[in-house]
Amino acid sequence: MKFQVNRDTFSEAVSFAVKLLPQRTTLPILSGVLIEATDAGLTLSSFDYEVSAQTEIAAQVDEPGKVLVSGRLLAEIASRLPNAPVKFSSDEGRISVVCGTANFTLPGMPVDEYPTLPQVSEQSGVLPAEAFSSAIAQVAVAASRDDVTPVITGVQLEVSENSLSLVATDRYRVAVREIEWTGGESVKEGLTALVPARTLIEIGKTFGHSGSISVAITSTDERELIAFQADKKTVTSLLIKGNFPPVKRLFPEVVDNYAVINTAELIEAVRRVSLVLEREAALRFTFTIDGLTLEAVGSEQAQASETDRRLPHRHRHRGLAQAILLARRPQRGALGIRAHLVHQDRQPEQAGPGADHQPVLEGPARGRQLQVPAAAQPAAPLVPPDATKEVPPCTLASSDSARWATTCAPACAARTSR
Fold first, then answer.
1. Cα–Cα distance, 238 to 219 (Å, whole number)
2. CA–CA gap between residue 378 and residue 306 (Å, rounded)
């Protein structure tokens, strides 16, 4: 095999192919990148039986062929090559990479032992790339990082008629976002796919500026997978098996009391106040008619508080004045805020009741707003008394998803508030 290719194009293609490969693998062959040279150009592929990546680039091919080489090593070499065309050739299991004054010789890996990449079926729908990337960044942070319960380490994609919902939870926080979706003719409403959050984050970074993304959800040979395609790049991922908890049931359809807060100012306030907190301490949010107060009590009697009286608010019942939210792990900055707050991509004028109370947003940041449901003090507690008793930890693995929504989730919220 012998070809010549642009250095920047080759470096970007190799970087994309190895991005989703695991740092360590029990099978060394799965750490390789498969390079195929044909008259049409180059195809670079990687596959570890769970995630695959494939991209096509233009190249001057003198001798077609196929080689398998260590992906991480090739990516490091390609990123440091001088500014000159890359000449790539192979002979008897040895691979030569020449670029300007640099010359590398690498060992090849057995191509015949490399697994076959999964085939992508017809597309299920098309997504706007920028909106999808933004939604992933907002939702994936709420996914769990604990592999003990794999079902909540992913992001649930739920297809409706003209929209796609992204949902994630780690038991203590929930993130939900909807974006536009153009579905195919054969796609049924209610289609779902539970995608690993780590994979989805990389997809959002890779395809964020691609214009539109083609999505295909397929099930073959007892393997359910999802594929994303754009700009001659394809990423496939196995779906997580299991029943995702019905966390949308936790949110009421109508919210009588709520506040509209400037996102940037709230994040900065949380970062200031949380300086005195230890890792597992709680940050208290108190919503009143007068504004929002953040309170923190740390070790050695260190305390901090901040009140924003410019808080634009709407409410239906002025007598219901106060609501308190506790955000765990505020040291994560904006992530701590999302412990009990849901981001909704709607303008304040379109959200909720009380349209006669139009908020006036102050300060330099007037962009995306964070709408915070602030349920007022009702006659009965929001969390049933029985839910505050000690209960076994949620497993989320059982098929009784309704029980999780009515028992486990309130119990988790009660433990958080304590």
1. 10
2. 26
